[in-house]
Design a protein that fits this description.
six-stranded parallel sheet; four-stranded mixed sheet; nucleotide-binding
């Protein structure tokens, strides 16, 4: 079982539009409504693969009730933490050329009692978990050290932690040695405080995160592929993508694929790449099922193309 923790979940509405023209009436060609939040998306991808997952998340108001209902229909067990504020609603506009514009609401502010209840719920639900995936931004009311506290408590209970967050929350949690962290290129650049122009730059940045405490780094480099840097070695993975429809949740799908395949080594990286590549070819935040995967299109190598320029360098 993979347990996910999403401190700031959302109700996500995705509209497919021909193009985004400011000040004009835009008629959507398609729309979806999904439960959102990075940890929620990991659970959705795990469930789509036919594996058991439990989602821990604070829920409040009508949007929170709808999130719980949507997760239930997808076969995901929900461990809700009732909160006074309403769960946030987000909007994504997906253009025909693959450009995505997102409007994310801030979400409710959690009280001290709600903060403790969230930690206690994770403790109660983690007994049967092979992995705990802690994902996303922190809502108001949770200090940047909250993830660090969760990692410390989980490790004390013998659980393995995958962490997908950024900024001060990521840096604070590194001292507790999460088992794997999953930054994208921008988050990796922010963590080390310098731009990334090549795959080699990304490898060096991942190695620095390991020096700061991460036991392994699974880095998403967008169209350039993914990196896995751990004590066992370093690998680079990529896959053919025929057409990008939406990158919403693609990184979360990658993390799910990585954990489903055991969470370490080149085979897990290959699974992560396959899941991410499949996700970007699906509409909205649809998570790939086994039939959507194309393992044959995935290449994983220990020969890192260090001099390869990133298609989307981070300045």
């Amino acid at each position: 079982m993979i347990l996910t923790v999403t401190p700031n979940p959302s109700l996500d509405r995705t509209y497919e539009v021909p193009s985004l023209d400011r000040g004009e009436v835009i008629r959507a060609t398609g729309e979806r409504m999904d439960p959102g939040g990075k940890g929620v998306n990991v659970s959705r991808a795990v469930a789509a693969a036919g594996r058991r997952t439990v989602a821990v998340l604070p829920l409040g108001g009508a949007p929170g009730a709808l999130v719980a209902d949507l997760l239930d229909t997808q076969g995901i067990e929900v461990a809700p933490v009732p909160v006074a504020g309403a769960t946030r609603s987000n909007i994504a506009l997906a253009e025909a050329d693959g450009v995505l514009t997102k409007i994310n609401a801030p979400g409710p502010e959690l009280s001290e009692a709600e903060r403790e209840l969230l930690l206690e719920t994770v403790r109660q639900q983690s007994r049967d978990a092979s992995w705990i995936a802690c994902c996303g931004s922190l809502p108001r009311g949770l200090a940047p050290s909250w993830y660090a506290e969760l990692v410390a408590r989980a490790h004390a209970a013998g659980a393995r932690i995958a962490l997908d967050t950024s900024g001060p929350a990521l840096l604070a949690a590194l001292r507790e040695r999460p088992d794997v962290v999953k930054p994208n290129a921008e988050e990796l650049s922010e963590a080390v405080g310098r731009p990334l122009a090549t795959v080699g730059d990304a490898v060096k940045a991942a190695e620095e995160l390991r020096e700061m405490g991460a036991r392994a780094v699974l880095a998403s480099l967008g169209a350039d592929g993914q990196l896995l840097v751990s004590g066992e070695g370093a690998w680079f993975g990529s896959a053919r993508v025929d057409a990008v429809r939406s990158n919403v949740g693609a990184g979360d799908s990658s993390l799910a694929g990585f954990l489903i395949a055991g969470g370490s080594g080149p085979d897990a990286l290959a699974s992560a790449v396959a899941h991410g590549a499949a996700a970007v070819q699906l509409p909205g935040s649809v998570m790939p099922k086994p039939g959507d995967l194309d393992p044959a299109s995935v290449t994983v190598t220990a020969r890192i193309p260090a001099d390869r320029a990133l298609k989307e360098p981070v300045s």
